[in-house]
C-alpha cells in the first residue's frame, strides 16, 4: 500500500512540473481558440539549442566515461527501434480500415525519437535529483535511425509484393483471354502483352528499384534534429566546450524547453482534427503504443541495470525515448521514403495523441516507477 501511495503522489507531483504544465497549458489555450503564435523560425532555433545542449552533454560524458558501459543500452536502443516498427506492422496493420503502408509509417514514426520529449525527461530527472548517465541522450540516433530505415524498407517490400501480386493476377487474366476466340482487330499488336511474369516485371521495372538503405540513413543524419544533436555530440567529444556549455547552453535549457512545450501543446490540439480523416483505431494505437513501447524498454533497461550497472535514471531515459514519437526529423523522412502513406494518419496519431501521452503520462509513469524501485 505504501508503494502504491508513494507512486501516485510522485505521479501527480510530476504532472504539476513546469515542463508538463506548459504542454497542458498550450493545449488549453488552443482549445479556447487563442490566436497566440510562436514563429516557426524561433521554434527551429529552440530545437537546435536544446538538441545541441543534449549532444554536448553526451559528448563530454562519453569522453570521460568507459565506452563498454554503453554497449548494452546501445544494442537495446537499436533493437527497440526495429521492434516497434514490427509491432505496428502486425497489430495496427491488422485492424479494420487501416492500410498496411500507413500502419508501417506510423510504426516508423513511433519507433523514431522525439528530441523534445527526451529533453523534457532529462529536465524532470534533474528536478527530481535522479542520477542518470550523461551519455544517455546519445542513445537517440541508435533508436531513431533503425526505426526509420526499417519502416521504409518494410513498406517498400510490402508495396513490391503487392505489385507482384497484381502482376500475377494480370498474367492470369491474359492467359485466360489468349485461350478465348477473338475477333480480328481485338489485339492489333500482340507484342504489347507480355507472355511471362519475368517479361511483365522487366517492363514494369525499367530502372533498378531496390530499396537502398544508405540514402535513408543519410537523409536521417542530415535532418535538423539529428544534425544538431550529432554536432553537439562531436563538439563535446573532440573539443573542450565546457565554458560555453556552463555559461550559455545549460542555464537557457529549461526556459527554452518550456516555450517548446507550449508550442507542442498548441500543435497537438490542432492536429486532432487530422485523425478524423483516418480510422479510429489510430486513436487507440496512439494511446496504447507509447506505454507498451516504454514498458518493453523499461524491462530491457532493467536487464542492463542488473547486468552492467546502468542507472535507474538511464532506464527512464531509454523508456521515454521508446515511448516518444519523432516530431521533427521523422515526418519529412517518411514523406520522402514512403510517399504513398497518408501523413494525416501517422503525423496526426503522433502529434495529436502520441506526444501528449509520452510527455504527460509516460514520463511521470516511468519516473515514478524508477523511484519506487530505487526506494524499495
CATH class: Mainly Alpha
Overall strand count: 0
Order of helices and strands: HHHHHHHHHHHHHHH
- Tell me, what's the shape? globular
Question: Portion of residues in helices?
Answer: over 70%
Provide the CATH topology. Answer: Na+/H+ antiporter like fold
**Biggest beta-sheet profile:** none
Low-confidence stretches: 184-193
Average predicted local confidence, pLDDT: 81
**Strand content range:** under 5%
Number of domains: 1
* Rg (CA only): 24 Å
State the separation between the terminal residues, measured CA to CA. 12 Å
Structural category is mainly alpha
Helix count equals 15
> What is the level-2 CATH architecture name?
Up-down Bundle
Keywords: Membrane, Transmembrane, Transmembrane helix
Protein name: Sodium-dependent bicarbonate transport family permease
Structure, described:
By secondary structure, this protein is mainly α. The chain has one domain (39-163, 171-176, 190-375): Na+/H+ antiporter like fold (Up-down Bundle). The protein is built from 15 helices and no strands. It has helices spanning 2-15, 18-31, 40-63, 71-90, 100-111, 115-127, 140-178, 197-204, 213-222, 224-238, 242-271, 281-308, 312-323, 330-337, 343-375. Helix 4 (71-90) runs antiparallel to helix 5, helix 6 packs across helix 11 and helix 6 runs parallel beside helix 15. The chain starts with a helix and ends with a helix.
Topology summary:
Blueprint: H1 2-15, H2 18-31, H3 40-63, H4 71-90, H5 100-111, H6 115-127, H7 140-178, H8 197-204, H9 213-222, H10 224-238, H11 242-271, H12 281-308, H13 312-323, H14 330-337, H15 343-375
Helix pairs in contact: 1-15, 2-11, 3-10, 3-11, 4-5, 4-7, 4-12, 5-7, 5-15, 6-11, 6-13, 6-15, 7-9, 7-14, 11-15, 12-13, 12-15, 13-15
Amino acid at each position: 500500500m505504501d508503494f502504491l501511495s508513494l507512486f501516485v503522489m510522485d505521479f501527480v507531483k510530476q504532472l504539476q512540473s513546469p515542463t508538463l504544465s506548459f504542454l497542458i497549458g498550450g493545449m488549453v489555450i488552443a482549445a479556447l481558440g487563442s490566436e497566440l503564435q510562436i514563429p516557426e523560425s524561433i521554434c527551429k532555433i529552440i530545437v537546435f539549442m536544446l538538441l545541441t545542449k543534449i549532444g554536448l552533454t553526451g559528448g563530454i560524458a562519453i569522453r570521460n566515461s568507459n565506452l563498454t558501459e554503453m554497449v548494452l543500452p546501445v544494442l537495446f536502443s537499436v533493437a527497440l527501434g526495429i521492434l516497434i516498427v514490427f509491432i505496428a506492422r502486425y497489430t495496427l496493420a491488422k485492424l479494420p480500415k487501416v492500410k498496411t503502408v500507413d500502419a508501417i509509417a506510423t510504426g516508423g514514426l513511433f519507433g523514431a525519437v522525439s528530441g523534445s520529449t527526451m529533453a523534457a525527461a532529462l529536465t524532470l530527472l534533474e528536478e527530481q535529483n535522479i542520477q542518470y548517465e550523461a551519455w544517455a541522450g546519445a542513445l537517440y540516433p541508435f533508436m531513431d535511425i533503425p526505426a526509420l530505415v526499417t519502416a521504409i524498407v518494410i513498406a517498400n517490400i510490402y508495396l513490391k509484393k503487392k505489385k507482384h501480386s497484381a502482376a500475377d493476377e494480370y498474367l492470369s487474366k491474359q492467359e485466360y483471354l489468349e485461350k478465348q476466340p477473338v475477333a480480328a482487330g481485338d489485339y492489333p499488336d500482340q507484342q504489347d502483352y507480355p507472355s511471362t511474369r519475368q517479361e511483365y516485371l522487366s517492363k514494369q521495372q525499367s530502372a533498378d528499384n531496390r530499396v537502398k538503405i544508405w540514402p535513408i540513413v543519410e537523409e536521417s543524419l542530415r535532418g535538423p534534429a539529428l544534425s544538431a544533436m550529432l554536432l553537439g555530440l562531436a563538439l563535446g567529444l573532440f573539443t573542450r566546450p565546457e565554458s560555453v556549455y556552463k555559461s550559455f547552453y545549460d542555464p537557457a535549457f529549461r526556459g527554452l524547453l518550456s516555450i517548446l512545450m507550449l508550442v507542442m501543446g498548441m500543435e497537438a490540439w490542432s492536429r486532432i482534427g487530422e485523425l478524423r480523416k483516418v480510422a479510429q483505431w489510430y486513436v487507440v494505437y496512439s494511446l496504447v503504443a507509447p506505454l507498451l513501447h516504454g514498458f518493453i524498454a523499461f524491462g530491457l533497461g532493467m536487464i542492463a541495470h542488473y547486468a552492467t550497472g546502468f542507472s535507474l535514471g538511464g532506464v527512464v531515459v531509454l523508456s521515454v525515448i521508446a515511448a516518444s514519437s519523432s516530431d521533427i526529423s521523422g515526418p519529412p523522412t517518411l514523406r520522402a521514403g514512403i510517399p504513398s502513406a497518408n501523413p494525416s494518419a501517422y503525423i496526426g496519431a503522433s502529434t495529436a495523441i502520441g506526444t501528449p501521452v509520452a510527455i504527460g503520462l509516460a514520463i511521470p509513469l516511468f519516473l515514478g516507477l524508477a523511484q519506487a524501485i530505487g526506494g524499495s
